[in-house]
Protein: Glu/Leu/Phe/Val dehydrogenase family protein
Amino acid sequence: MTIAAPLPDFTHERVTTVTGARSGLHLTVALHSSAIGPALGGCRLWTYEHWLDGVADAMRLGQAMTMKNALADIGAGGGKAVIALAPGDVLDAARRRDALLDLGDLVESFGGAYITTEDVGVTEHDMLIVRERTQHVVGLPAADGGAGEPAAGTALGVFASIEQVLFAVFGSASVEGRSFVISGLGQVGSRLARRLAEAGAVLTVTDINPSALAIADQLGATWIDAADAVSTPADVFVPAGLGGILTAPVIAQLPVRAVCGPANNPLAERSGADALAARGILYAPDYVVNAGGVIHLALTERGETPETVDARLRGIGGTLAEVLATAEAEGITPLDAADRIALARVAAAR
Ligand SMILES: NC(=O)c1ccc[n+]([C@@H]2O[C@H](COP(=O)([O-])OP(=O)(O)OC[C@H]3O[C@@H](n4cnc5c(N)ncnc54)[C@H](O)[C@@H]3O)[C@@H](O)[C@H]2O)c1
Structure:
């Protein structure tokens, strides 16, 4: 038996893997912690070499949600679900529906301790099917009374974080005249680019999808090849595509003063945070910066007004300021500082 990803440490309250009664697929819910509140985290539909890789992914992602939700201060614990496809397995509409109903049953078996929503490979419309089997689901389409698309909230939180980063590095939070390289112009990257352009930033942008060139033209941004994103000088590098872009060789020559963007896990390895610090590059931890999505989701579902949600999204800048101050005071990286604050909040809630 070959397992690509070894299982992470078991620090979880409960991990359940089932063979879906309808779909025959392997589904996992990894409830990491409900100390602060019911665990909130999306369901990922993805292809894995081995079903245990799906379990490992759910466990890692669930633990990461505990940290993100603790720092986001939304009264939620952390967990995640995975529907694992075998290589080459393609779902037709009927089997996809079966898989989502199976997910609903699995979520329901947690009795509300885990609340699911969408993640990679799953849409807000899929959540309507999940709701046929459980009430413990959020992020339904706005037209169906749900919180709707979180990308605008995520982009606002990233913008507030960028202002904080600029203040820490340059002594002024103004983005006007500051230069940014944005790698990835999808849901979040395009909205963030628009905000930055409107505030007078100098933008260099890229995406592996050439259709994003139209966004660059609209915003008056300079378009570069995706491969050049990490070698183009700027004040701030904004990772807004997939994770893993900051490898050791990339960090060794990254020509920027700071890294701050929405991408999950932009560091290929955790030690990248130390390497960036050693080069004097400020790294704003991903899960602090991109918490706007969960904040939008949790507060909107709770019935908070758009004004309250907006204020909390802007408040991500304040959370980042606390993280940077802790890092400075303790002589540790911002990533270690964020972990320390999150873990203290979880411990205090136990
Ligand atoms: N959508 C949210 O609210 C949210 C919340 C938290 C975190 N995130 C994270 O932010 C990132 C962006 O999310 P999104 O919703 O905008 O996703 P998306 O799929 O809409 O956009 C990602 C974009 O990045 C591009 N891309 C992929 N690899 C690239 C590369 N190597 N170089 C340049 N471009 C590349 C894609 O073509 C796509 O246009 C992801 O890492 C996501 O996990 C998103």
The pocket of nicotinamide-adenine-dinucleotide is lined by residues 150-151, 154, 183-189, 206-209, 212, 226, 240-243, 262-264, 290, 293 (CB under 6 Å). The two ends are 39 Å apart (CA to CA). The longest strand covers residues 77-85.
